[in-house]
Amino acid sequence: MKILGYFVNTCILSVSSNDSLEDKNDDLEMVDLINAAKIEAYTDWCLKEKQKKSRELVKWLMPQVKSLLKTMFHTGTASLRNKMLATEMQQELLNRSREGEINEADMPKVSTISNWISGFSRTWKRAMAERSLEENKVANSE
Questions:
Q1: What is the residue-averaged pLDDT of the chain?
Q2: Which of 120, 108, 119, 101 is nearest to 60 (CA)?
Q3: How far apart are CA 97 and CA 105, in angstroms?
Q4: Alpha helices of the chain — where are they, by DSSP H?
Q5: Exposed, middle or buried: residue 63 (CB in 10 Å: 0-12, 13-18, 19+)?
Q6: Using CA of residue 12, residue 17, residue 18, residue 21, what is the dihedral sign?
Q7: What is the dihedral sign for C-alpha 96, 97, 100, 101?
Q8: How many Å apart are CA 72 and CA 117, to the nearest integer?
Q9: What is the pLDDT of residue 79?
Q10: Minimal CB count within 10 Å: which of 32, 86, 90, 117?
């Protein structure tokens, strides 16, 4: 049993199905519901103005930016000397936006590029592992 929150002269308790009130009477503490400062500290979380607003709108990677990132990723996979970090990829995208190839408003943050790299890398490794297994099956069946 745990205290979830306080309202004016009311205490909200959470009782799990395993708890029986008879067994827990000895463990209960007296709660001072008269102390306004204590009540205010606990009730702040339920006020509308204290709640976090909904998340910002999600900004998706544009297909043109994605294809450029894939090209940079595959170039790094083919040649380790050409492997790029997320900051270097963003710098390359900035150069492309200055040339007018992509819109500057479509420019992703470094953290977005880093997350894209980890997700794409995971997908790429899985695809290559499945391809390798299929090739081994074909080679073993011959």
A1: 77
A2: 108
A3: 9
A4: 21-24, 36-43, 63-78, 86-98, 110-141
A5: exposed
A6: positive
A7: positive
A8: 10
A9: 87
A10: 32
